[in-house]
Specification:
The protein is an alpha+beta fold. Helix content is 16%, strand content 52%. β2 and β3 form a beta hairpin. Keywords: Signal.
Length: 88
């Protein structure tokens, strides 16, 4: 158990520099409407089923990279940035 714990700690320390990778992709939907898709890789835990020699399922929690994607809309333009409209 100690050896497995030591290997696990070393693995986490070695890979801790690679925990987050961010990518921004600009996506234009229509005229005047813009936003970005933000993609982020982060370490998350999930359950993995392994089998003992007597074919009994054993669930263990492991950590692996997972991609999280979210759409981030751009905020509206401030009113003082707009040109005044002449109504003649």
């Amino acid at each position: 158990i100690f050896y497995a714990l030591l290997v696990n700690i070393l693995f986490v320390l070695v890979t801790s520099g690679f925990t987050k990778v961010n990518t921004n992709v600009v996506h234009k939907v229509a005229d005047g409407v813009q936003g970005t898709w933000k993609k982020k890789w982060t370490w998350k835990q999930h359950w993995v089923k392994t089998w003992k020699p007597v074919y009994v399922a054993k669930w263990t929690k492991v950590w692996s990279p997972a991609e999280v994607r979210e759409y981030v809309p751009l905020p509206p333009v401030p009113p003082n940035w707009l040109k005044p409209v002449n109504h003649h």
